[in-house]
């Protein structure tokens, strides 16, 4: 949990935190000292009207829906062998249901994230949970393996956007200084599904059968749907600003906002309309543009490989522990407990470390800026305007958010990879079960922290499109997990468990070193791209008047040709009349553009 004192955090929110701006638009350069802030800035509305208690409640609300996305994958693992035997299919075929789940878990948020960034968080969450609820009922009643495959796809497509949307919600209501803790806390509660899903699944399957798993999920998601529909307010800043603006659409209004305490806390009767941000056009393919940015693509690669390795080790345990160690379904479920507990600890702990490192780095950066400002004032004869311009535009004075968020994960990811290698060879050599579980937990402890770091970073970089940006992380990790799981059985039969995890962990460890690119060059890449965009916009604006004149000239010439065809005796080539006609049409077009 974030360690901030609640009163201090409330005071911190009484101003717009400059660190919440996107580095694409503002490279986090504190160009003025605190003493030079204008009175208008001091009286600015808070970044978010949600207080500490409300934020913790939002964490709980988000986790109550997000946990069903993570649990649906892991709770299914203990049932794999049971389903394989009941429907008389091969191990490769039963793994297809796992692969398809991850494929749709990656694809669906990529599309739905754009909808959440355009139309709001609340409608997407409610739709997702409702679709998941219906799919779980269908799975519990499925009679053929084909029905299971189809409904697993529907189940995954329904609930998977919730993870990305929840990250967007945290981005809407928190500043950068707080964000790491709240994102880590939300992810930690959501990861409870992965932590204890297999344990729950093993107990349910051994007591009843695999269908009971989906009845359990249907009941839980139904309760979550009711709770979320009542308690989850809209947070998208294009719709509600800092939370004080009442949404226009009825589906965006949470019943809880009608209570006097929430109306008073969020200032719904005196909204801060100036905190509304412009709404962008809907672009469902927007996430794909992030893959063209090297500093982001590298991060997505590392995150995807690390998550895929972790999922592969969970999938391998489901089959190998039962076949090689002759464990019952219930005992196999218990074997997931070390991995689950360590995963939850990893994600929540990463949030705390992210907050600590941000404060440490930002304090050093402020000291650097103050020293640089004093030196620049001496060099430029105390001309504050010139100094502010230098501090605002020179990249060397920018706060490196890439280094702040990513420098803490190198050692954990290397330790995690080493742990997975040992885990694989313990399975391959049939060593004592305790060793297998110890290294499963050890590897998980250092594995999933990269997800919290990556999620926090992309929300920092794209706060107004946080659901879209976060969906890219989800897409890369789920698609890579699907590829790894699809190839797992072939790799185990040809390379053994030791060789398989040595290869996969080696690939993951090697990719970790590519994070040096965003840490060292990320800010430069973003800065250069922004300069190119500004140059292109400037060139386009400069060319616009000439394009307009050419368009009008062509229209007038065409009219003259047509006029000569119908009235060959009339003089239509008069320069004065032609000039008047051109000016008239340009004025008309310009007026039309102004009104639109």
Structure description:
There is one protein chain. The protein is globular, with a radius of gyration of 28 Å. The longest helix has 51 residues, at 516-566. Residues 1-41, 561-574 and 588-596 have low confidence and may be disordered. It has 596 residues and is mainly α. The protein has helices at residues 6-12, 39-42, 52-74, 80-86, 91-119, 121-140, 145-159, 161-173, 176-190, 192-207, 211-231, 237-240, 260-265, 286-290, 294-323, 329-334, 337-379, 384-393, 401-406, 410-428, 433-447, 449-461, 466-512, 516-566, 575-595.
CATH class equals Mainly Alpha
| Mean of residue pLDDT values | 78
Number of continuous helical runs: 25
CATH architecture: Up-down Bundle
CATH topology: Growth Hormone, Chain: A
Number of strands: 0
Percent of residues in helices comes to over 70%
Instruction: Let me know the CATH homologous superfamily.
Output: MFS general substrate transporter like domains
Strand content: under 5%
Number of domains: 1
What structural class should be given to the helix and strand makeup? mainly alpha
Order of helices and strands: HHHHHHHHHHHHHHHHHHHHHHHHH
Main location: membrane
Biased composition (Polar residues): 29-41
Subcellular location: Membrane
Membrane topology: Multi-pass membrane protein
List the helices and strands and how they pair.
Layout: H1 6-12, H2 39-42, H3 52-74, H4 80-86, H5 91-119, H6 121-140, H7 145-159, H8 161-173, H9 176-190, H10 192-207, H11 211-231, H12 237-240, H13 260-265, H14 286-290, H15 294-323, H16 329-334, H17 337-379, H18 384-393, H19 401-406, H20 410-428, H21 433-447, H22 449-461, H23 466-512, H24 516-566, H25 575-595
């Amino acid at each position: 949990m974030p360690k901030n004192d609640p009163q201090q955090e409330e005071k911190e929110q009484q101003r717009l935190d400059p660190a919440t701006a996107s580095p694409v638009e503002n490279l986090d350069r504190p160009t003025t000292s605190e003493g030079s802030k204008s009175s208008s800035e001091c009286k600015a509305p808070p970044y978010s009207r949600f207080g500490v208690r409300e934020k913790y409640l939002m964490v709980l609300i988000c986790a109550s829906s997000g946990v069903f996305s993570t649990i649906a994958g892991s709770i299914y693992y203990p049932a794999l062998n049971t389903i394989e035997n009941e429907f008389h299919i091969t191990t490769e075929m039963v793994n297809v249901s796992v692969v398809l789940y991850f494929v749709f878990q990656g694809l669906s948020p990529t599309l739905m994230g754009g909808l959440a960034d355009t139309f709001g968080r609340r409608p997407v969450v409610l739709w997702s949970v409702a679709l998941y609820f219906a799919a779980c009922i269908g799975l519990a009643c499925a009679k053929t393996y084909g029905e299971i495959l189809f409904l697993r796809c529907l189940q995954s497509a329904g609930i998977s956007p919730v993870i990305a949307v929840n990250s967007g919600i945290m981005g809407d209501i928190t500043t950068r200084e707080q964000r790491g803790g709240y994102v880590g806390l939300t992810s930690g509660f959501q990861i409870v599904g992965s932590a204890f899903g297999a344990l729950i699944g093993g107990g349910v399957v051994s007591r009843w059968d695999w269908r009971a798993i989906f009845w359990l999920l249907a009941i839980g998601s139904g309760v979550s749907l009711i709770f979320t529909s009542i308690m989850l307010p809209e947070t998208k800043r294009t719709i509600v600003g800092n939370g004080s603006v009442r949404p226009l659409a009825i589906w965006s209004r949470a019943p809880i906002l009608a209570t006097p305490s929430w109306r008073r806390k969020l200032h719904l009767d005196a909204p801060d309309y100036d905190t509304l941000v412009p709404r962008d056009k809907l672009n469902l393919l927007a996430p794909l543009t992030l893959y063209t940015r090297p500093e982001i693509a590298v991060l997505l690669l590392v995150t995807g490989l690390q998550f895929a390795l972790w999922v592969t080790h969970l999938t391998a345990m489901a089959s190998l522990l039962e076949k090689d160690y002759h464990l019952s379904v219930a005992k196999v479920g218990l074997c997931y407990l070390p991995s689950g507990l360590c995963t939850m600890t990893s994600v929540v702990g990463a949030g705390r470390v992210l907050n600590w490192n941000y404060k440490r780095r930002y304090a050093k950066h402020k000291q650097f800026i103050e020293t640089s400002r004093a030196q620049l004032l001496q060099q430029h004869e105390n001309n504050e305007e010139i100094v502010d311009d230098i501090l605002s535009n020179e990249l060397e004075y920018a706060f490196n958010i890439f280094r702040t968020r990513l420098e803490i994960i190198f050692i954990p990811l290397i330790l995690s990879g080493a742990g997975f290698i040992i885990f694989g060879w313990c399975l391959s050599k049939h060593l004592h079960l305790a060793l297998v579980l110890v290294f499963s937990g050890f590897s998980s402890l250092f594995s999933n922290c990269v997800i919290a770091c990556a999620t926090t970073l992309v929300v920092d970089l794209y706060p107004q499109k946080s659901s879209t940006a976060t969906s890219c992380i989800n897409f890369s990790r789920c698609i890579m997990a699907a590829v790894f799981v699809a190839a797992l059985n072939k790799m185990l039969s040809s390379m053994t468990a030791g060789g398989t995890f040595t290869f996969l962990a080696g690939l993951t460890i090697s990719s970790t070193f590519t994070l040096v690119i965003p840490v060292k060059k990320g800010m430069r890449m973003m800065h250069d791209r922004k300069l190119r965009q500004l140059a292109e916009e400037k060139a386009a604006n400069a060319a616009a008047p000439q394009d307009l004149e050419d368009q009008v000239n062509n229209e007038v010439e065409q009219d003259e040709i047509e006029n000569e065809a119908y009235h060959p005796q009339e003089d239509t080539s008069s320069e004065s009349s032609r000039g008047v006609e051109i000016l008239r049409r340009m004025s008309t077009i310009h007026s039309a553009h102004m009104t639109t």
